[in-house]
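User: What would this chain look like folded?
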Amino acid sequence: MMTGSERRTAIINQIKNSTVPVSGKALAAQYAVSRQVIVQDIALIRAEGNNVISTNRGYILNAPHTVNRIFKVHHTDADLENELCGIVDLGGKVINVMVNHRVYGHIEAELNIGSRRQVENFMEDIRNGKSSPLKNITSDYHYHKVEAESEEILDMIQDMLKRRGFLIEAE
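Assistant: Here's the prediction, encoded as structure tokens.
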């Protein structure tokens, strides 16, 4: 016999993994409980912070569907804009830049660059001498966490970085 907590975990996973709305009637039948129990379960699932939406066809999870990948790259300051524009043009968002310094260790800075306009603003700040790119302290070797709507987009970004000679193969 399944506990209420186990049932709610199963329900949220089912809604999360479904490509179509999941009806309350179907959930009630599957878990051998009343429709009212499902309504109460959904209320508890929402209280846990899950954004479950009721539609006329059933329940769906309103969650941002993004994936991310970390790319190890190497390029000069002259190629910085080329790299960032290439990523955002393919639908990626550059979440951060990271370096592994031999003395200071792991250093990370948030970027959140998702458009050409944001690339321009970032490049303007670099050109105005406000600061120099973090990669400069590790001989231009650095990492970017990149977010996108699908693995296919991340694959296209990886291919572009490789073609432009920026991508460092996994060690």
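The first helix runs from residue 4 to 17. If you want, I can go into more detail on any region.
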